[in-house]
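Annual report, structural modelling task.

Input specification for the alpha-L-arabinofuranose complex:
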Amino acid sequence: MRSRKFFLSIVVLVSLIAVFPTFAQDNVGSGLTIGFAQVGTESAWRTAFTAATIAEAEARGINLLYVDGQNNQDTQIAALRSFIQQGVDAIILAPVVETGWDQVLQEVQAAGIPLVIVDRNVTADPSLYFTRVASDFVHEGRLAAAWLAQATAGVCNIVELEGTVGSSAARDRQIGFNEVISLFPNMHILLSQSGDFLRDGGYAVMDGIIASEDMAQICAVWSHNDDMAIGAAQAMKDHGIDPGNDILIVSVDAIPDIFLAMMNGDTNATVELSPAMAGPAFDAIVAHLAGQEVPRNIAVSGGLFLPATAADEYARRTQQ
Ligand code: AHR
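The model returned the following structure:
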């Protein structure tokens, strides 16, 4: 009789676990120590991504060792070495640039620590990390260009505000954008300069261009992120140009401030880069540590947002 009761309890317990898998998910990773080497605080998207990662770790009971890389690869390399010394269970690396990671990633692997790349890519041997959680930057560039092509009927001289030189986000967005505009013989990039993904950088580049170029020849600004777009729009306003009208602006990220800018008519379109990469990264680490097969690439998706939904998007993204 007793053993029958015991057997029934086991059956009920197993059924509950099967019926409520999300309950177990909430605690995935509890007790792990994970090092997180972040790029820095260059953009509102980046700080939202950091905040989401810290919140997700807290919710799961993960001890997250966070290091702000200050947009500097050497700082990030030093962070990885300190994670090795501290004997973390896993590492998440959001690399500032693509190249120069081979040596330190080999050290991480030699220490037996699994590593996930998030967001921007690295050129290092893929066997040095077990997965990458990221969006498709080439696709983002294509979406931005496709919107601009239809908005201008394929006739437009463009200023490009590039992100951080050497980052895969800047390079791949540029590739995707150029691929689409190359289909339109009357769409050209007139000028391309880096604003380093910074709002001040976008302002400074645009300010310089307004001082040196004939702005009547320019139809649009293609900015690799929203912060530079907002900086460029401000520079235009300071010089009596009406951004979003005299000159169209399309960018990437979908941060709350870009929806405000669209509501004011200052910018025209943004492609979303989701900051929700921590959940998939933590899940991948737990699965990998449990010996499960993890896909080499885990995609996060975005989409194109226009002024028509800007007010709703702003409200949705800023409500507590
Ligand atoms: O790597 C992604 C890019 O980095 C974001 O688009 C930009 O805002 C950030 O700084």
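Residues 137-273+307-318 form a domain with the Rossmann fold fold (CATH 3.40.50.2300).
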